[in-house]
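Entry type: protein chain
Record version: 2
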Amino acid sequence: MAASKEEGIHAVNQEFKKYEGVKKEQEYHLVENQETDQFDDDFVIQTCDMREFFEGGEEGKKAFSDKLGKALEEIGFAVLSGHGVDTSLYSMAEEKVAEIFENTTLNERMKFEAQRQGSVNQGYFPIKETTIIHPDLVEGWVFCRRAFDLENDPNFKAANFWPNPDYEKAFRPIVQSHEKLILPIMQSVLAYLDCDSRMYDEKLAATNFGFRLNYYPAISKEDEASGAGRMLGHEDVDLFTILPAQSVDGLQVFNRANGKWIRLNPDPGTIILNTGDYMQRITNDRLPSTTHRVSKPKEARLHGKPRITIPMAVYVWEDEILDVLPGLEPVKYKPISAIKFHTGITSKYYGDEYAVGD
């Protein structure tokens, strides 16, 4: 690796450029740098009302597609309202995530320590162990499709994935609700790009996803003095990520147009949507994989409060081929298997041996 975890506090992203699978010219500090970072307080990330898609007929679908596509092309982020998900599930999830990380012992959690399954590192990540680059001030737990009983499988055993099987039942409705948004989002993106809006329907039926529980504990004086961030600056590897708005701020989005950071803290109950590396690859750089990070809350009074998020990353299955969409020319990227593309990029976080070859 180009830098040790301690050096990662001061690193910039271009030190890890060899791992990237798409063009990323922007340069930024992996952790908020108070001396050099500037903030963009004027840029407003577009809110897109999904009721246009669900209730507006063909005109509504086109209006939603145009708004969403323009937002993602400009900044790689949008905020979704009118999505139809019961937002009480998000309140419940915050309580359950706190319960998992606060009421189980580290030894109990370590029984489920993360290992690569297919493309994705699945399982529990201890604090400061999310990557080998930077000591992130977050504990994480990634559950992929196999960790949920979504097909009423009589052989399914929640205890293989969860410290208490009741947690699977609690989080399953959120995953099922978010799955209902996947095709409307992807169809809208494809329509915006003048492609067949249903060309990914089959690829995204019973799709591959990573549902992550993030628990950022209260920031101690030691953490404050260390210079570590809550989550290092990065771009998601997926097609797109569905992230319910958080109750404690800290999410920052990099604006490539001016090199400044946008503090993104939308209304409760909305969903933050952002595009990842898969999407940038298949759209020939039209829809960028946008840099973001999690820093300390702007207000010091919130440093003593845990931050909890439940992002859901949407992928395709490992044997799918990532091809540039038709009509997007000149083609910049050769076809590549999802598993080679995915693990080649994420080996910067887990070590070179993580990558899968041809």
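Comment: The longest helix spans residues 165-192.
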